[in-house]
Amino acid sequence: xxxxxxxxxxxxxxxxxxxxxxxxxxxxxxxxxxxxxxxxxxxxxxxxxxxxxxxxxxxxxxxxxxxxxxxxxxxxxxxxxxxxxxxxxxxxxxxxxxxxxxxxxxxxxxxxxxxxxxxxxxxxxxxxxxxxxxxxxxxxxxxxxxxxxxxxxxxxxxxxxxxxxxxxxxxxxxxxxxxxxxxxxxxxxxxxxxxxx
Length: 197
Prior knowledge:
This protein has helices at 10-21, 48-58, 96-106, 173-179, 181-193; strands at 2-5, 28-30, 65-75, 116-126, 132-143, 159-161, 166-167. By secondary structure, it is an alpha/beta fold.
């Protein structure tokens, strides 16, 4: 089975592939460059669900089952920010280092017990007949005052997962893929998806 993933983000695609490979045999994931799609998709919704659906709808003419992930970090003290703006929190072009710097600046002096947040992943799926659905996965954590670890990407070096007593950037790939928001969203996706194929 082939599924088109609405991304050219190689790290995100690898993570999705690593998670699904262990759950679904004989699945082949395609990315946007595999189908010759090089246009920018304007994600201007104010929810993760809205942006994920924008991406799948933009690819409807290609005839594939298409999934899109829209994900980000929601920090309690910042009223859910950076949220849907996680990738471009510090402006364009997207820069993980600058995003992390801005997050630390905005949480300066905030005590540990008020630095809670969660990673959120919404998966949208659209079938060639136009039917679609969305699911959500969340992973709670705490935003540290300085980065730790060299793995992962995005806000992973600041996101402390208390159950493992490590940041996401200190977890092995397998550890992260077992507990992450994207893992939880993809498991929810497969539960719904399996009833529709």
